[in-house]
Specification:
Elements: E1 4-5, E2 10-13, H1 21-26, E3 31-34, H2 47-56, E4 60-63, H3 73-85, E5 90-93, H4 98-107, H5 114-122, H6 132-142
Parallel strand pairs: 2-5, 3-4, 3-5
Antiparallel strand pairs: 1-2
Helix pairs in contact: 3-4, 4-5
GO molecular function, one term: hydrolase activity
InterPro entries: BLH_phosphatase-like (IPR005939), Prot-tyrosine_phosphatase-like (IPR029021)
Domain Beta-lactamase hydrolase-like protein phosphatase-like: 3-110
Length: 143
Amino acid sequence: MSFRPLTDRYAVSPQISQEELPALRAAGFTTIIDNRPDGEIPPHLQTEEMRRAAEAEGFTFIANPVIGGAVTLENVERQREAIDQAGGPVLAYCASGNRSSVVWALANAGRMPTDELIGLPARHGYQLEGLRHEIDRLARERG
């Protein structure tokens, strides 16, 4: 299991498996956000299989499939809502953790400085500098 904390309440990860759920619970996570569309992954890791396993382990499970290179405002708002409603630390996963970092940064535009929203994921190799204009735009809109 390899998760990368962006903050003390939000971490990202490549695809997780059902077998990793007890360790994620032991690590303190309470909510899992699935940012992978089912078309990318084998049936045993698809949303409903993961939801059943995660909920059986006591997690809140949110499906918010993000298509690489095509993040929507709906994805951003759904991620923001899931983070806001979480009762504890959140783990979001996708193929590498990059999409989960992107929607986190966009969801937090206006709440944190843009430099932090880009710099925190960069510590783990996620390059979000290309989103600077979009983060700043969302921050202005949220005013």
